[in-house]
Amino acid sequence: MTAHEDITDGATAPTLDDEAILVAETQRNVRRASGAGWSRFTLPPFGTNLESVYNHLATRGVDDAALQRPAEWFLDNYYIVRRVARQVAQDLPPGFVRRLPRLATGPDEGLPRIDALTRELIARKGIELDRSTLDSFVAAYQKIVPLSIAELWALPTMLRASVLRSLLSFFAELKVPGVGLQDVADSRARRSDGNPPLNPSVGVECAIRELRLLAEMDWQVFFEEHSCVETVLRSDPANVYARMDFDTCDDYRKAVEDLAWNTGITEEDVASQAVLLARKATHGPRRGHAGYYLVGEGRRVLEAQLGFRPKGLERVRRLVTRFPTFAYFLPLATLTAGPLLLVWWYAAQASHAMWSPFSKVALVFACMLAVAPLWSLSALVVQWVYAKLLPPRRLPKLDCVSYTHLRAHETKANLVCRLLLEKK
User: Fold this and answer.
1) Is-contact 211 247, C-beta < 8 A?
2) Cβ 123 vs Cβ 88: under 8 Å
3) Cα–Cα dist 50/74, whole Å
4) For the chain, which terminus, N or C, has the lower number of CB atoms within 10 Å?
5) CA 380 to chain centroid
6) CA–CA gap between residue 60 and residue 4 (Å, rounded)
7) Contact in structure between 126 and 19 (CB atoms under 8 Å)
8) Cβ 168 vs Cβ 179: under 8 Å
9) Biggest CA pair distance of the chain
10) Helix locations, 149-199, DSSP H
11) Residue 229 near residue 149 (C-beta atoms within 8 A)
12) Of 187, 212, 202, 213, whose CA–CA distance to 132 is shortest?
C-alpha cells in the first residue's frame, strides 16, 4: 500500500463512520415488533418485472445505443438475477418480517428498520459496496443503535432487495416497458448525499456486480463479527461457547431471541443475565456454562430472573416434557378405549331386548380382537401429534478438529495425541 492510499483511507474512513452515525441517529426511535398486525413493508413483484424486462430485451432488437451494454449485461446474468429474486422472496416470509423492529417516526414510519437502513446504504454508496465498507458502516451504526439478531440475519436479504429495486429503477430510466416508475422516484429521493446520480447504463452493470459480490460473502462470519449478542455470549466463563460449532451457537442465540421476544427485554440483557448466572454458579462446572441456563436444566432459573411465563403451546410442551409417561399413555388409552366403549354402548342400546349371554361373549371377543389394531392406530396418531408439538432438539457439540492439521504421514490417532500434548 502506498503513502497516497494511506492518506486516502484515513480521509474517507471518518466520512463513512459519520454517515453511519447520521443514519443511526435518524433511526433511533423504533417500536417493538409485534407478531401480528398490519405492516407497510411489501416486496415489489421482482419476478414479474424482471421477466418483463427479459422478454423485451430478448425478443426485440435493441436499437438504442445507451441500452445495448445494459441489455448485454442483464441477458448474460439473468439466471443470477432471477435466482436472487427467488431467494429474496423465500428468505423474507411475512412471519419473519413481522418480528423485525419497525421505525416509530420519520418518513419510513412503520417499515422495518433494517429495510430503511439497507436502502439508505445502497443509495448513499451508489451500489458500490464491498466487505470492508459494509463492516465499517455496520460497526459505526451499532455504536448508536445495536441491531437485533433477526435484523442482522435479514441484512443480506434486504441488501439484495435494495439492489434489485435499483436495477429495476435503472431500466425504468432507460424507458424499458413493464417497469414502474415508483422505484425511480424513491431511488432519486434517497440520493441526498450530494453525489451526482448514477448513469443508468452504468448502474445496471454495477447492480449485477453487487449481486455477485453479495453472493460471495460469508454471512455467517459477518453475523458472528457484528452480533452484540455473540460478543456477550463469547464471554462465557466456562470458555466453551467460543469453541462450539455454528449450529450449537445458533441454538443458543435462538434461545436468547425467544426469551427477549416474550419478555420485552433486550437481547443483550438476556445474554448478559445468562452469563452472569454462570459466573455466580458454584456447584459444578456445568452450571458455570451460559448454555446451562439457555438450553439446559437451568433454563427455569433464567426465566425466573427475567420474569418469563410460558403461554399457549409452550405451556403444553412444558407439561408434556414434565410428565412424559402420563402425557403419552393417557391419550393413547383414551383413543383406544373410546371407540370400544362407544361400540359397546351402541350394541347394548340396539339389542337390549334380545340381549343374551352368547351375545355378550361375542361382543367381548370382538372388542378384544379390535384392541390391537386400535392401539396401533392410536399410537400413530399420538406420535404424529407429539412430533409436531415437540420438534427435535440438537445436542450441543464442539467444533470438530479439521483434518487439515494432519502432517505428512500422520494418522488421525497420532493427530489427537499430538494436539493433547500441545495443549499441555
Assistant:
1) no
2) no
3) 10
4) C
5) 32
6) 48
7) no
8) yes
9) 109
10) 149-173, 182-190
11) yes
12) 213
What cell does 131 get? 466487505
Cell digits of residue 71: 441489455
Cell representation of residue 422 = 500441545
> Whole-structure pTM over 0.85, yes or no?
no
At residue 192, the 3 state secondary structure works out as coil
Looking at 273-386, which runs of residues are DSSP E strands?
A: none
How many other C-beta atoms are found inside a 10 Å radius of the C-beta of residue 2?
A: 7
| Residue linked to cell 460478543 | 231
- Cell 463512520 belongs to 17
- 282 grid coordinates: 458454584
* DSSP secondary structure code for residue 244 in this structure: B
In the chain, count of helices (H) and strands (E)?
20, 2
- The per-residue pLDDT string of the chain (424 residues; one tens digit each, 9 = 90 and over) reads 443 444 344 444 447 788 889 888 988 888 876 655 556 788 888 888 898 888 888 876 666 777 888 888 999 999 999 999 999 999 998 888 888 999 988 888 888 999 999 988 888 777 778 889 899 999 999 999 999 999 999 999 999 999 999 899 888 888 887 665 444 444 444 444 455 677 888 888 999 999 999 999 999 999 999 999 999 999 999 888 988 888 899 999 999 999 998 888 999 999 999 999 999 987 777 888 999 999 988 999 999 999 998 888 888 888 898 899 999 999 999 998 888 888 777 766 665 555 566 666 766 777 777 788 888 999 999 999 999 998 888 888 877 654 444 454 556 566 566 556 555 5
Residue 86: in which H helix or E strand, if any?
A: helix 78-91
